[in-house]
Design goal:
Belongs to the XPF family. Interacts with EME1. By secondary structure, the chain is mostly helical. Helix content is about 65%, strand content about 5%. It has ten helices and two strands, in the order αβαβαααααααα. The protein has helices spanning about 5-15, 35-50, 60-75, 85-95, 100-110, 115-125, 130-140, 140-145, 150, 160-174, and strands at about 25, 50-55. The protein has a two-stranded parallel ribbon with strand order 1-2. Helix 2 (about 35-50) links the parallel strand 1 and strand 2 (about 50-55). The longest helix has 20 residues, at about 60-75. It is elongated, with a radius of gyration of 21 Å. It starts with a helix and ends with a helix. The relative contact order is 0.09.
């Protein structure tokens, strides 16, 4: 599983957890080649309400975790705290199931430039597999292919629709 896949899996597992204050810890220096990761982190912060904590080194990560632990100890010693058991939290946070065809299809879609995870989910809701999309492209003329996604999936821009059309046209002509 690549960096993007691991990030998506971790984010989904955190979203399923009952915790209200979630921190996504990112260790390491900013690398321009990973600009897409930076965009994904910003999106996670805004859309899912995560706090993003950056550290440069394992030592700095350990210091952050120690400070956080001390803060939690101090906070919880002053008041009665209730919540779910550790075992229940583990159960909620574990991998839910094996990947479905749709899960794999969404990850395949996200390889396309301009295809966010949200858009990929929308496309997969309309076309549940690559075979379903290929079938749809095979049923429309070349003049309609460029706008297929734009008309079938709300929110998909024309440029992305055209890009996908070119890819699937090349698959069909091969």
């Amino acid at each position: 599983m690549g960096l993007q896949g691991r990030y998506e899996e971790q984010k989904q597992r955190l979203c399923r957890s009952p915790m209200q204050n979630m921190v996504y810890l990112v260790e390491g220096k900013f690398i321009p080649e990973y600009a897409a990761c930076e965009q994904a982190l910003a999106s996670t912060m805004v859309m899912h309400g995560f706090m993003i904590q950056r550290t440069i080194s394992p030592e700095e990560t350990a210091q952050f975790l120690c400070r956080l632990t001390d803060h939690l100890k101090t906070t919880t010693s002053k008041r009665h705290v209730t919540g779910i058991s550790y075992e229940s939290l583990q159960e909620l946070s574990k991998k839910a199931r094996a990947d479905t065809v749709k899960d794999v299809w969404i990850r395949q879609l996200m390889v396309c430039p301009g295809m966010s995870s949200e858009r990929a989910q929308q496309v997969a809701n309309r076309f549940p597999s690559m075979a379903a999309m290929i079938q749809q492209y095979s049923q429309v003329g070349r003049d309609q292919a460029d706008s297929l996604l734009t008309s079938a999936v709300p929110g998909v821009k024309r440029t992305l629709s055209t890009q996908m059309s070119k890819f699937f046209s090349s698959v069909l002509s091969a």
